[in-house]
Amino acid sequence: MSEWRLKYGELAPEGLAKMRELEHYLNIDAGLEPSLLGLVRLRASLLNGCEYCILVHTAELRRLNETAERIAAAPEWRDSDLYTKRERAALAWAEAVTNIQDGHAPDVIYDEVRAHFSDVETVNLTLVITTINAWNRLAISLGSHSNRGGEGKS
Question: pLDDT tens, 65-81?
Fold first, then answer.
């Protein structure tokens, strides 16, 4: 097993507790379907290359009775007819927000999200994407060199 750079869960427990509070809100009170949350988290983790989070969210989707086919298609979701229009809009938004360094989130993707999500759902979906990106960055930058473990819930 590789060595941790920093055991960030032990070093900043209050900060991680606040992130977990936000996760609790998103999982319970955000009004978004659990499988949608899992797919978005998986897609962002795949984009970021966070092995630990990929494993966590794949297992999460299995617990939610997602099919192996839908989970496996997540990297190439555009080429699949396995996702609803709402899920497709969320996955596109996840990519746009995760890859924000490529430029602003395109209006065409935002417009598609708005066609399938209410104002509050759009904000909450963006919070889900922002939060998984934060977890990915913690695990990748401060976790083990192999990134095969985590200090917090992802």
Answer: 999 999 999 999 999 99
pTM: 0.89
Residue 35 tokens, joined: 């499988």
Reduce the DSSP state of residue 97 to 3 states and report it. Answer: helix
Q: How many Å apart are CA 139 and CA 50, to the nearest integer?
A: 7
What CATH number does the domain located at 8-142 have?
Answer: 1.20.1290.10
Distance separating alpha carbons of residues 99 and 101, to the nearest angstrom: 5
Map out the domains of the chain as residue ranges.
8-142
Alpha helices in the chain (DSSP H): 8-11, 13-28, 34-48, 51-63, 68-72, 85-98, 107-116, 119-142
